[in-house]
Specification:
Blueprint: H1 4-7, H2 14-20, H3 26-32, E1 41-45, H4 51-57, E2 62-67, H5 70-79, E3 86-87, E4 100-106, H6 114-124, E5 125-138, H7 143-151, H8 158-164, E6 176-186, H9 188-195, H10 199-202, H11 206-222, E7 232-244
Parallel strand pairs: 1-2, 1-4, 2-3, 4-5
Antiparallel strand pairs: 5-7, 6-7
Helix pairs in contact: 2-9, 7-11
Length: 246
């Protein structure tokens, strides 16, 4: 897993992560799992607090979440009745061979050791099963959202995802791309609270955290599209990459 410290930093903010991080559009989750029968067996790798798990459950599939951080697992279990997350990571999935009709990943694929993870994902998938990483990416085509990303050192965008992950290795068919748009409505304070669940802020020293927060307050107070507003619509592009197990 890339940058182990950052990847496991989220547990310190598990409750706020679950509260403020955006949900996935139903259309995006449905597209990721297109072609599966009723009540398919789905594994959610790097499941975090269960945001994607609950999105898959809402489509009437069965979900087994796998998550390495015990605090995130605890939040997932508390927020997701009837589901218990397994301790494990993408490089060592605690499940038998061929058990899954699909493996999904929400916001976590970029943390994986890809070569090892691809082998494990292929192992737990049945032949023809689906592998689908999903990301909610802020839509930085909107000027104030781009400035938000610069201040908070968010450093991710839809173009990077599409360009960086062009294939999943020889065990999988060529990657298909789906893109969906949506937005969340938050107060400025809630946007800041959401950004406090990002790995860069969680692992930053106190003086850097204070500088980021000060610049965020200035953005919301002074930007012409934001000043004086009680809530803002934060736009997202949801990127889905999908391939089948050969």
């Amino acid at each position: 897993m890339a940058d182990h410290t950052q990847a496991l930093s989220f547990g310190a903010a598990a409750a706020d992560y679950d509260r403020f991080r955006p949900r996935y559009p139903v259309a995006a989750v449905r597209w990721a799992l297109d072609g599966l029968g009723d009540s398919a067996q789905v594994v959610d790798l790097g499941a975090g607090t269960g945001i994607l798990t609950r999105g898959v459950l809402a489509l009437d599939h069965q979900v087994t979440p796998v998550e390495p951080d015990p605090k995130m697992r605890a939040q997932l279990d508390a927020a997701t009745p009837g589901v218990t997350a397994l301790a494990g990571g993408a490089e060592s999935v605690p499940l038998p061979d061929g058990v899954a009709d699909a493996v999904v990943v929400g916001q976590a694929y970029h943390w994986f050791d890809r070569e090892r993870a691809h082998a494990e994902i292929a192992r737990v998938l049945r032949s023809g099963g689906t592998f689908a990483p999903i990301w909610n990416m802020r839509d930085e085509r909107v000027a104030w959202v781009a400035e938000l990303g610069r201040i908070a050192h968010l450093g991710d965008n839809a173009g990077d995802v599409v360009g960086r992950y062009e294939d999943f290795g020889s065990a999988f068919t060529p990657v298909e791309l789906g893109e969906f748009t949506h937005h969340t409505t938050l107060t400025p304070d809630e946007v800041v609270a959401m950004l406090h669940t990002r790995s860069y802020w969680l692992t930053a020293p106190p003086e850097r955290r204070a500088r980021i927060d000060r610049e965020l307050r200035d953005l919301f107070a002074g930007h012409p599209e934001l000043a004086g507003r009680e809530t803002v619509e934060l736009p997202y592009r949801t990127i889905v990459l999908r391939a089948r197990r050969r």
